[in-house]
Write a structure and sequence with these properties.
The chain is mostly helical. Helix content is 73%, strand content 1%. It has one domain (2-383, 392-467).
């Protein structure tokens, strides 16, 4: 423990040097702006600024890029809460209850809880990164294609079960998302699938146009269909602060989201997106009042926002400890380190202690900077709601189009957003949840690749999934959840009291009369 504290002291001496501190602040500011703008996202922001880091030393470069990464996680909640437009894919779940809180005049508390939850989760997960990186990364390496296939299937089933609504509806929406996610070039054979002559679909349907269409555009269509537009809000200073009850209701969701996000972040894939979905599903299941979810429950903001920020730190565990990127964003940051002649892996801590511990310390500093940046801006952001809806909604529509177009400079993406907006409008009219569609689009490439790699490993033998202990355990857990969801249907149709002879004659007569 004493050695850890000495190393942390070394890290802060590096991170608090004028140059490193400046890069941490600049990264946080850029990341917040990137998160607020719909469609840009942390991957695009890091990729665009990667060339700018080549002239820096390795420590400053990784501190700048990391600041953009977790700054975007913070900023993504702003437009999600105020306008129901996900700033980036990980903020999809925040849209649901965050926007409902805004409609009830509680946008300030939602933004404040999102900022505080992100700060706590980010700080605690950095402690986890500092203490648990090597053993957790070693465990993550035990996952091969069969384990990833089982994990992703289990994730879909867990989310369908945890939503608390109709599991069949949730799975149907997830299946639709998986089908949409299979559009494009087959990653293993190079065959161009389901493109209908549209060359731009070669890279598949992006998560951003799907999410912005299903959430932002569908909300505009629903509001436009109302006889009277919503009242313009006039937020007061007193309404910007969370109440004592809201703080109390947020405590455990923040704690659970922090732990869940960190553990999920270690596993390769789009961890910050999956973590927010899992956290929302868990909060809805454990809540004493699940009916409040979707109607403005503060837990539906606190949990997912904490989870996606915690997953950000978790994603650095395999990257720093083993040199194995756990997703596209850590992969870009890994490339930045390699450009500077640094080889991440087990020897990084011994060979480059200033870089490793300086990076850890910069994350502590970055979380404080982001909290200081975001809390005072709550009042400024909430004032957007003073704009009359006939002016605000056309501006939001332009915001959506520009954000989606900016990702790939593709008009096809804008059309995808429009189609998804119309689809989201219809699905919400028929009481379907649209969030599983986004998750399906995210998971489809990973699920397909891991499934086909598993079959390639076994020469087409499906038994590989039951010969691997971790995979069979996760598949068994998924089957258990399916049976658990069917249990209420089975118990309603089978009268156990009649079968066991416990029903009285009068009970039987009443049932027969029904």
């Amino acid at each position: 423990m004493l050695e850890t504290l000495q190393n942390l002291y070394l890290g802060f001496s590096v991170a608090l040097s004028p140059a490193a501190f400046l890069y941490a602040v600049v990264g946080c500011v850029i990341g917040t702006i990137v998160g607020v703008l719909p469609g840009i996202g942390p991957l695009a922001g890091i990729s665009l600024l990667l060339p700018a880091s080549f002239g820096m030393d390795a420590t400053s470069a990784i501190i700048l890029l990391a600041g953009i990464y977790y700054g975007a996680m913070y900023g993504g909640s702003t437009t999600s809460i105020l306008m129901r437009i996900p700033g980036e894919a990980a903020s999809v779940m925040t849209c649901i209850d965050g926007y409902e809180m805004t409609r009830k005049g509680r946008a300030g508390p939602a933004l404040a809880i999102a900022a505080v939850g992100s700060y706590i989760a980010g700080t605690v997960s950095v402690v986890g990164l500092m203490l648990l990186a090597p053993p957790l990364a070693a465990f993550a390496l035990r996952f091969g294609p069969p384990e990833y296939t089982a994990l992703l299937l289990l994730g879909l089933l867990v989310l369908a079960y945890m939503t608390g609504g109709s599991i069949s509806k949730s799975l149907a929406m997830a299946a639709l998302g998986l089908l949409l996610g299979m559009i494009g070039i087959d990653p293993m054979t190079g065959f161009f699938r389901f493109h209908y002559g549209i060359v731009e679909l070669g890279d598949g349907i992006g998560v951003v146009p799907v999410a912005v269409g299903l959430f932002g555009l569908s909300e505009i269509l629903l509001t436009a269909g109302q006889e009277t537009p919503p009242k313009v809000m006039q937020p007061r200073l007193a309404d910007l602060l969370p109440s004592r009850e809201e703080w109390r209701d947020s405590t455990w969701p923040i704690a659970r989201g922090t732990v869940l996000g960190f553990l999920i972040g270690i596993i390769p894939g789009s961890a910050h997106i999956i973590a927010s979905f899992v956290s929302y599903a868990v909060e809805r299941r454990v809540s004493k009042h699940p009916e409040r979810f979707g109607q403005g429950a503060i837990e539906g903001v606190a949990g997912p926002e904490s989870a996606n920020n915690s997953a950000t730190s978790g994603a650095f565990v395999p990257m720093l400890a083993l040199g194995v990127p756990s997703g596209p964003i850590p992969a870009v940051m890994l490339a930045a380190l390699m450009v500077h002649g640094i080889s991440p892996g087990p020897l990084l801590i011994q060979q480059q202690p200033e870089l490793f511990w300086g990076f850890i310390a910069s994350m502590y500093i970055g979380n404080v900077v982001l909290l200081i940046l975001n809390l005072p801006l709550v009042g400024l952001f909430v004032n957007i709601l003073r704009v009359p809806y006939p002016l605000l909604y056309p501006a939001i529509l332009v915001f959506c189009v520009l954000g989606v177009y900016a990702v790939n400079s593709s008009v096809v993406d804008v059309w995808i957003m429009i189609v998804m907006g119309a689809l989201g409008y219809l699905l919400r009219k028929f009481d379907f949840e649209t969030a599983p569609i986004v998750l399906g689009v995210v998971l489809a490439p990973m699920l397909e690749m891991s499934f086909r790699q598993s079959l390639a490993m076994s020469s087409g033998n499906y038994a590989i999934f039951i010969h691997r202990p971790i995979a069979v355990f996760m598949l068994g857990a998924g089957l258990f959840l399916v049976l658990l969801s069917l249990l209420p249907i089975f118990t309603r149709r089978v009268n156990w009291r009649r079968l066991l002879g416990l029903a009285t004659n009068s009970d039987l007569e009443k049932e027969d009369n029904r």
